[in-house]
# Entry
Amino acid sequence: MLQFPAVTWLGNQPYLLLSLTSLFWAGNVVLARYVAGHVPPITLSCIRWCGTFVLLLPFAWPHIKRDWPILRAHWPMILIFSATGFALNNVLSYSAMQYTEALNGLLMQSSGPLFVALWSLALFGVRLTRGQFLGIAASFAGVLIIILHGDVTALTSIRLNKGDLMYAACMFAFGLYSALMPRRPKVHQLSLIGATTACGALMLLPASGWELTSGGGVFIWDRLTVAAIFYVVIFPSALAYLFFNRGVALIGPNRAAPFQHLMPVFGSVMAIAFLGERLQLFHLIGYALVLAGVVTASRK
# Structure
């Protein structure tokens, strides 16, 4: 990261980095649902990573030049990171928001720690500790309380559609990205995110061209579209992935994964702040469980 005291300090605060990542990604889920019908999902994903690469390139280029021999030697891993963390998971999540509600997406997002744990176990034999398991369970219970408004019987009324299944597939792909992150090439993080965003954008360009020319989606260029592109390029992309990669590097994927449970918390806070919803007792109970679970699961 850039050598400024505040940036250096932030780069060594994994819990803050991962919390900010969840905040930015929660906004991304809500925004993706809001702009459904304005920008086709593949095209929005392509614009997101093209814009992120252009934004980061001036800062990343010196590191990419220095680390190029290592990046080239590990190109299969770079392609896997690009596909699972940028191209595939992003297209699936934006496509899912064409068919399901933002709250459903936030609920599906809470399955992320499970997929990270399964991939870590399958690939590297890394098991959850008792504290991590209890923390994930507690925070997931808190997520359910928040989303179900404290009414457990409402769980029976939830109906899965193809959008929910797409989001589950998105989390399956991102779980692999998270589990592999500790095995990333030993390069500067700007080199890594610069290379992976470039590859992710290149993977999406042909699909985006097909989507626009085949009538697979309508692109409406208006203020909402411009604002959405501005947000997704800066916050859930450039900043969030830098923060997430650094947080995982500092504390590992299994300890970092429960921070995804903060997304429904931030989503509900946004609803209270911007949509006029009232703060109720079930919110406080859910927040307490999520935070207690995250603290428990992220401890050494």
User: Anything to note?
Assistant: Residues 14-298 form one domain. The chain has a mean pLDDT of 87. The radius of gyration is 19 Å.
